[in-house]
Amino acid sequence: MSALARLATDVVGCRACPRLVAWRELVATEKRASFRDEVYWGRPIPGFGDPDARIVVLGLAPAAHGANRTGRVFTGDRSGEWLFRAMHRAGLANQAESTSLDDGLALTDAWVTAAVKCAPPDNKPLPSERDMCAPFLEREFAALPRATVVVCLGSFGYQAAARHFGLRPRPKFGHGVEVRTTDATGRSITLLCSFHPSQQNTFTGRLTEPMFDSIFSRAVELARRSDLDPHPT
After folding, report:
1. CA-CA distance, 153 to 4, in Å (whole number)?
2. pLDDT given at position 98
3. Is the omega angle on the peptide bond into residue 171 within 30 degrees of 0, that is, cis?
C-alpha cells in the first residue's frame, strides 16, 4: 500500500475530535432537503488527485453538504464548481465539474486537499481541531515528493501552509500574494494565495473567474519553472 493510500485509510477512520465527529454525523443523518435521498459519506475526507502532482491546492475543510456528502474533497458544492472549472481551464482537470466519487474526474499534476479533514460547524474549525489534523497534512506533503507549488485557498489555508513549512515572519495574506519558502529537504516551495471560492466571495464579486484563472495559470507557470531549477536562489 502506498503512503497516500495508508494516509487515506487513517484519515477516513479518524475520530479524534468529538465536536467534529458529532457534527459531521449529525449532518449526514439530518441531511439537506435537496439531498434527502442520498447516502451521506459522513466521515473525514482524504486528499485527492495525482500522486506525482507539482501543484497542491489547500483549502480549509470539507463542506457539510458537499464533500461530507460525496466523500471527495470539494465535490458537490458551489466552491468545488468554481475550483474544478478553473482547474479544467488550466489543464489540471479532465472535466469542469465534480458531483460524485464516480463521476470520472481525474487530475493531472495537481492534488486537492484541506487543512482540516472533517466538516466543521459554521465552517470554523477550532484551533485544537486544526492542530489535531496537522500530522495528516505533514504526511500528505511528505507523500507528494514533486510538489513545489501550494495554492492556498483563503487565509486559513495559507496559515496552515505557513505553519507546516515553518514560515516566519509570515507575509500578509492577499489574493495573488506569492511567498517562497523551503521544506525540510531544502526543496523550494512557493505558496500562492487566492481568495477562497466561497459563495461570500464569488456572489459579491470579491473573487471573479478571471481572478481565479490567473492563480492557476501562475501555478502552472511556477510548477514548470521548478522542473528547470528545483533549488532556485
Report:
1. 22
2. 93
3. no
